[in-house]
Specification:
single chain, 481 residues, alpha/beta, Polyamine Oxidase, Chain A, domain 2, 7-stranded mixed beta sheet, binds flavin-adenine dinucleotide
Length: 481
């Protein structure tokens, strides 16, 4: 008999949250804290979605997406999770750029960037201040016709080097391009510039375990290996979900799965207005990523001056489409020193990330796919030699992940690393108008992606659900006693 991962589950919940990415985890926690009866159903055997980790023999623990996030995480984690979680957030000391146009190290905040732009790039201080003020003043309700490329042209015409400094990390951070609305750049850039780049000390395993403990203490019924097959909808809205073949009633559903899978796979287009479906079909998925996870010999490490986050590129010019090319010229190296996991084994790990297109990996035969992965590892080791001499001899474990890996583990269509492009946010927000009780909280719209964006989106959506359930439209909550 296969194990019943729903053993002991109730027949009905106020909210079923589908998926345990940071958005789903946060929504579930807030809803349970508010007294709702919540089930969190995750199809994978581990929680965290893209914010997860894996272990390899030799005591190596790799984090999938712990490269850096803005300081805003401290406030969000303190308010919506716990002081313990917030207190483990630490700043990255060295962010480095190395490309044919410039090489520099920065604390990646407004003060240091202003100094760099003025002294190294020769830009007038007033211009720099005006740019920062405009970026910081942007919000979702602004004019969306101005593109990021136009924003740069307005302030720094013809300065490709400046654009590279300002844009390369953000393209890496959320996949946005010069053609995307400027607000997607301005909001994310300003979030980082407020204080710099931060990570979670202790690793994703410590973070997700702390989140699980907190959720359980608040009463969330946490279920792993629970694949939600469909969301059933009646005339009045959401009715139930089908998980591992069992139907569970739900007053509301928060889907943390990819927005497009939520609409087209879990529900079906016939349940929505035709106009909404046209908009949903027009939502573009974000790009995916390749990663190479490398572990140094346990007795070996690299000097701290190597940096924490290194944006390296061999491309003469900065072009966002080049960042997606199979012919890799740009790699972002994250260096994880032993203090990443102060309580763990002394290990130095290096992860190389590159934005990637799903279609470059999807059509390959098994042999071609394995060969491409091996090639990715080899070329990455070559590139690493510049920063870690004799890297090839010093790395004792190296393996690659591709868009197919991300698709496999999270079910994100095309292995999208940041959900959907900008237009996804409006569609995500409109779901409850189409089907009462149906919500989506997960990477979408660039702004609501990344660690901070998805946590904050989980908060926003949890509040929407609380308002909906407590309004007269919904019947009284299912008792949690
Ligand atoms: C390689 C990489 C590096 C990154 N680096 C950074 C970084 O340094 N900083 C940063 O801020 N962001 C980074 N990101 C982005 C960040 O990790 C994501 O934006 C964020 O973690 C996504 O959270 P989410 O809530 O949207 O859910 P996801 O993490 O996308 O999780 C969705 C969950 O839903 C589950 N699910 C899907 N369908 C079903 C179903 N039918 N039934 C049950 N469960 C289901 C999946 O298994 C998954 O657990 C990175 C992403 C990648 C891929």
């Amino acid at each position: 008999m296969p194990k019943d991962f729903l053993k002991g589950a109730a027949d009905e919940y106020d909210v079923v949250v589908i998926g345990s990415g940071l958005g789903g985890l946060t929504a579930a926690n807030i809803l349970a804290r508010d007294g709702m009866k919540v089930m969190l159903a995750e199809q994978h055997y581990k929680l965290g979605g893209l914010a997860t980790w894996f272990k390899r023999p030799g005591g190596h623990i790799f984090d999938i997406s712990l490269h850096g996030f803005p300081h805003g995480m401290v406030k969000s984690c303190r308010r919506y999770w716990s002081k313990e979680i917030a207190d483990s957030i630490v700043q990255l000391e060295g962010v480095r750029f190395d490309n044919p146009m410039f090489s520099l190290t920065t604390s990646f905040d407004r003060k240091d960037f202003t100094q760099l732009l003025v002294s190294q790039f020769g830009i007038e201080e007033q211009k720099v201040n005006e740019f920062f003020d405009m970026a910081r003043g942007m919000n979702f309700y602004d004019d969306q016709s101005l593109t990021t490329g136009q924003l740069f042209e307005k302030f720094f015409p013809g300065r490709e080097d400046v654009v590279r400094l300002l844009m390369e990390p953000i393209t890496y951070a959320n996949g946005s391009t010069l053609e995307d609305p400027a607000i997607t750049y301005g909001i994310v850039f300003s979030n980082f510039m407020s204080k710099g780049v931060f990570v979670f000390q202790g690793g994703t395993d410590k973070l997700v375990k702390a989140m699980e403990k907190e959720m359980k203490a608040n009463g969330v019924d946490v279920r792993i290996n629970c694949d939600v097959e469909s969301i059933n909808v009646g005339a009045d809205g959401v009715q139930s979900v089908v998980i591992n073949g069992r139907t569970i009633k739900a007053k509301t559903v928060v889907s943390n799965a990819n927005l497009r899978s939520t609409i087209f796979k879990l529900i079906g287009e016939d349940k929505f207005d035709a106009g909404f479906i046209d908009d949903a079909k027009a939502v573009r998925l974000n790009n995916s990523s390749t990663q190479v996870y490398m572990a140094m010999h346990p007795d070996d490490t690299v000097p701290r001056e190597t940096g924490d986050l290194l944006f390296s590129s061999t491309a003469e010019r900065f072009q966002t489409d080049l960042l997606l090319s199979r012919d890799i010229t740009s790699r972002t190296f994250s260096f994880y020193y032993p203090n990443t996991r102060p309580e763990g084994k002394e290990r130095t790990l290096i992860v190389s990330s590159t934005n990637a297109k799903y279609e470059d990996w999807a059509g390959l035969s098994k042999e071609e796919y394995e060969a491409s992965k091996a090639d990715l590892v080899e070329t990455t080791l070559d590139a690493l030699e510049k920063y870690v001499p004799n890297a090839r001899e010093r790395i004792v474990h190296a393996e690659a992940a591709t868009p197919l890996t991300f698709e496999h583990y999270t079910k994100h269509l095309d292995g999208a690393s940041f959900g959907t492009k900008f237009e996804g946010l409006t569609v995500s927000r409109a779901l409850p108008d189409q089907i009462p009780g149906l919500y989506h909280a997960g990477s979408c719209g660039i702004i609501m992606s990344g660690w901070l964006g998805t946590i904050n989106y989980g908060v926003i959506v949890a509040n929407d659900v609380i308002n909906y359930i407590s309004s007269s439209a919904a019947t009284s909550p299912v008792s949690t006693s």
